[in-house]
Amino acid sequence: MATGRPSDPPLILASASPRRRQLLGEAGYSFIVAEPPVDEPEHIGPDVPPTHKAEALSYFKARSVAGQFDTGLIIAADTLVVCGAEVFGKPTDLEDARRILGALLGRRQEIITGVTLLDAGTERRMISHDVTVVVMGDPPVEQVEAYLAGGAWRGKAGAYGIQDEGDAFVERVEGSFTNVVGLPMELLSSMLLDWGYGPAQSLKRL
Questions:
Q1: CATH architecture classification, 11-194
Q2: Which pTM does this prediction carry?
Q3: 13-36 burial, b for 16+ CB within 10 Å, e for fewer?
């Protein structure tokens, strides 16, 4: 098993998400953080399948920080929620969060996370995705409104987080739990091992 050496280029997590940072750290990986400096593109062709869209958005994030580094392996991810014919990202405001939850509660949905590895020096890349099925219950309106008022929906695809208050809405998870949180560690660990990275790189913070 490859474990990495202190002389190896660092792992670079291109994310502003504290949940992704926590997952990567808890898995034993050391890394530096570089938050993507620009917003994600709002529209990627309406006919693009959600899996391709999630992958494209993750690659966009990786590319957006690549210019900051001469070496290093960049990790980027983007999560979408698909329910029926609709694709949901992060809510823009309270009313959007209410709309998204209204569409998801009581229904089966797919959580899709695109993952990109990008070598900052050579531009070699690996892109993949994971899909997890989540079945949500249909809680009372009062419970939903209390959740919305608390603001825990901010910054979360689908307007809920399975790792915090939003888990009260979830009845069943089929597949990777960490994928629902925002970083499918089973997939990512396999991708990193393909590139010779295990959980032992040196840690710095930008």
A1: Alpha-Beta Complex (3.90)
A2: 0.86
A3: bbbebebbbebbeeeebebbbbeb
